[in-house]
TrEMBL record:
InterPro entries: PPR5-like, PPR_rpt, TPR-like_helical_dom_sf. This is Pentatricopeptide repeat-containing protein-like. PANTHER family: EXPRESSED PROTEIN (PTHR47874), OS05G0407900 PROTEIN (PTHR47874:SF1). It comes from Dorcoceras hygrometricum. The keyword Repeat applies.
Length: 495
């Protein structure tokens, strides 16, 4: 072989051209003045092959497709553990072994995110059945820790973390997974302790994700000083905050009702980088609603109206509560406009009670009774005395004693919290209309529910009988008051 041919041969062998093209060139093409043309032809042929392959599904697409098929098979056996194991043996083993780096298992677990119980079953099967042939990777253990955390199985998450550590598989992502488990389950101090351990390991370095998890953990427990200290450490370490960093901060300030800090953080984002995204705007909408800043709430709502209307029903309920607590003159109309956006299957008893109180305070008797009827029909019940008194007051201001009597009967039958004020209000209203016999029957109603006459009960009777000159009954009431140790009532006007 000529010297020039030898040099060309070596150059080809060092290139990325497949061996079959090298053999074709060396054995069939002697070095000549046209060798450059032949070389260009080979390169063109190779590029053509690459273009053809690029048109085929990529490895990632193939993996996602196969994992998706396996996911559907598993979901079809979601109530059959043995069936899931059979599916994994028949169709999973070959896929998992093809991707020995664990990426197939990680992809399948990701696709089962909405079914954490099934995901854990798959993980445990992988852990017990295939580890001997293909050792588990840190990515797989990380997924397992996250799944255990979502299922609030902290002990299992710790067990998996320790198992991976014993195999020398420690990584920042593994620490992040256990920290998120602690954070999700309200164990902020354990989360912080694990963070300190991570900082002491030379082979691992806290990432911005690590700091975000820590801030979120402190925020849930309203440990604002710890949140702020973590933010200072981020800045001291020259780590760039992300949207998730600010999201965790704002969420923590909302939880702690620190509205000024919430707004200050939002303004920092608006004026700098990263800019607020949809998640931040939704958080600010919640914060403004909870703080009663209706003008800012309405402005934020206009920015995210379409998303909230279709996907954030809980935020609509939060806005309704904000209006109900406010003194906005148009609050009823605004509330009812938002109510129309809530589907029937999103009914919440507590919201029903809030609406009852809103209508009661506005003396919208018909709407109040419609909401009360809905509560009865849906087997919701009221347990707070303040709500019952709110309803009573509305009936009293409207002088609607007959409607009050019907409500009392229905509420008693439905198991609502029946307070003495209900009966007293009925007595006062009957007395004001000189319906004395009906007033006296209320005493019997109280006896039926083991609610004995109090000092106020006798005073109501005394004032009514005194007003209408019922001398004999007045003397009986005075006698009963002495008998029960209440003494003689002072002269007073009937209210």
């Amino acid at each position: 072989m000529a010297h020039g041919s030898l040099k060309t041969h070596k150059a080809i062998r060092k290139s990325s051209i497949p061996a079959r093209f090298v053999r074709l060139y060396v054995t069939q093409t002697p070095y000549s003045s046209s060798s450059q043309t032949v070389w260009s032809s080979i390169i063109s042929l190779f590029l053509h092959k690459c273009d053809a392959r690029s048109a085929e599904p990529s490895v990632d697409e193939y993996l996602r497709e196969k994992a998706s098929e396996l996911r559907e098979e598993i979901l079809s056996h979601k109530d059959d553990v043995e069936g899931i194991e059979d599916v994994l043996k028949e169709k999973g083993v070959s896929l998992f072994r093809r991707y020995s780096d664990g990426s197939a298992v990680v992809e399948l677990l990701s696709q089962l995110k909405s079914f954490p119980v099934l995901a854990l079953e798959v993980f445990e099967w992988r852990r017990k059945q295939l580890d001997y042939a293909s050792p588990m990777t840190v990515e797989e253990y990380t997924k397992g820790v996250v799944i255990a955390g979502r299922l609030k199985n902290v002990d299992l998450a710790v067990e998996l973390f320790n198992e991976a550590s014993n195999k020398q598989l420690k990584s920042t992502s593994l620490y992040n997974a256990l920290m998120s488990t602690y954070s999700y389950n309200g164990l902020a101090m354990k989360c912080q302790s694990l963070f300190q351990e991570l900082k002491s390991i030379s082979t691992c370095t806290p990432s911005i994700v690590t700091y975000n998890i820590l801030i979120s953990a402190f925020g849930r427990l309203m440990l604002v000083d710890h949140m702020d200290a973590t933010l200072r450490e981020i800045r001291d370490q020259n780590v760039r905050p992300t949207v998730h960093t600010y999201k965790a901060l704002i969420a923590g300030y909302i939880t702690a009702w620190m509205w000024d800090e919430m707004e200050k953080t939002y303004l920092i984002m608006k004026e700098g980088s990263p800019k607020p995204n949809l998640d931040i705007h939704l958080l600010m909408l919640r914060g403004y609603a909870n703080s009663g800043k209706l003008e800012q709430m309405e402005q934020m709502y206009e920015m995210v109206r379409n998303h909230v209307t279709h996907k954030e029903i809980p935020l609509i309920r939060v806005m309704i509560c904000a209006y109900c607590r406010s003194t906005d003159v148009a609050r009823v109309d605004k509330v009812e406009g938002l109510l129309r956006l809530i589907p029937d299957d999103e009914y919440r008893p507590w919201l029903n009670v809030i609406l009852i109180c809103l209508y009661a305070k506005q003396d919208l008797l018909e709407r109040m009774e419609n909401s009360i009827s809905e509560a009865f029909e849906r087997n919701a019940y009221v347990t707070t005395v303040s709500t019952m008194r709110c309803i009573i007051s509305s009936y009293f201001r409207q002088n609607a004693v007959d409607k009050l009597a019907v409500f009392l009967s229905r509420a008693q039958h439905a198991g609502w919290n029946i307070c003495r004020s209900l009966y007293h209000c009925k007595m006062v209203m009957y007395g004001s209309q000189m319906r004395l016999s009906e007033m006296e029957k209320v005493i019997d109603e109280m006896d039926q529910v083991n609610m004995h006459c109090s000092k106020k009960t006798f005073w109501i009777l005394y004032n009514v009988y005194q007003k209408y000159g019922q001398k004999s009954k007045l003397e009986q009431v005075v006698g009963q008051m002495f008998k029960h140790g209440y003494g003689a009532p002072l002269p007073s006007n009937f209210v």
